[in-house]
Amino acid sequence: MNPPDKLKLRTETQEGRCTVYISGELDLEAASQLRAVMEPLVELSDRILTLNLKELTYIDSTGIGILISVLKARHARSAPFTVEMVPPHIKKLFDMTGITPFLSQAGPSAAQAR
Amino acid sequence: MKPVEPTVVLRVPAEAEYVDLARLTLYGVASKMGFSYEDIEDMKVAVSEACNNAVLHAYGAAPGVMEIGFGVCPDGLRITVKDDGVSFDSAAENGVSSAPLAGKSIDEIEAGGLGLYLMQALMDEVEVMTRPGAGTEVVLTKRLAKSEEMA
């Protein structure tokens, strides 16, 4: 089967900031696609890395697992990572799993201080 | 919720590209039953997590099949995800009862067990029956709230 892309990724790189816009469904099938895009981007320690989730319609533990990997990789580089425009149902899943404090604008050190 | 023969059964290869069919079928069945948008979104994640397990852990390198059954009951929906494979994600078997990542540092957080946690958090009941050499069956149950019932 060759369906249209379930997950669409668009990267915008500017001075000081790199934003990845994710649209569609982030499930097990789409996971490798996101990992492949994120791998070189987590190396960019000199700028803020942001995931824009406004058009994300589905996420499960697979996608949350990728966010955890990105968080760890950025933390290891002392480099910032944030998510923005999280849809309500996805925010609910983030809250349930306890990942939300790690994704806050203030960054991981604020989460650990809580 | 009493076990019933599933009303609707989907039988697909236990591969990642077919998990979205389980979500689509879930959407169809649950909408007909009058479940809320919120409950349907919750159940989509839960059924996908159960399917993800079959895809990742049941068969190793050899292809296999997973069967997703939707049992329409008077008081709710009983979803079964069955495979004939060799194992369940045993690392996740000792379930977690509260937010798995809460109170941990970045170095301590990990993705293992999140799938099972989400199934338990999003459904009213979860049963996992795994028998060595005879596959795994996950039963997910969601009760239909009174206000959603159609007379």
Structure notes:
Chain A has 114 residues and is α/β, with parallel strands linked by helices. Chain A has one domain: STAS domain (Transcription Regulator spoIIAA). Chain A is built from 4 helices and 4 strands, in the order E-E-H-E-H-E-H-H. The longest helix of chain A is centred in the middle third of the chain and has 16 residues, at 61-76. Chain A is globular, with a radius of gyration of 14 Å. Chain B has helices spanning 19-33, 37-58, 90-93, 114-122, and strands spanning 8-13, 65-73, 76-83, 125-130, 136-143. Chain B is an alpha+beta fold. In chain B, helix 1 (19-33) runs antiparallel to helix 2 (37-58) and helix 2 runs antiparallel to helix 4 (114-122). In chain B, 44% of the residues are buried. Chain B has one domain: Heat Shock Protein 90, CATH 3.30.565.10. Helix content of chain B is 33%, strand content 25%. Chain B has a 5-stranded antiparallel beta sheet with strand order 1-2-3-5-4, covered by helices on one side. The chains are: A alpha/beta (114), B alpha+beta (151). Chain A binds chain B through residues 1, 6, 25, 27-29, 31, 58-62, 64-65, 68-69, 71-72, 75, 89, 93, 95-99, 102, 108, 111-112, and chain B through 16-17, 19-20, 23, 38, 41, 44-45, 48-49, 52, 55-56, 99-107, 109-111, 114-115, 117-118, 121-122.
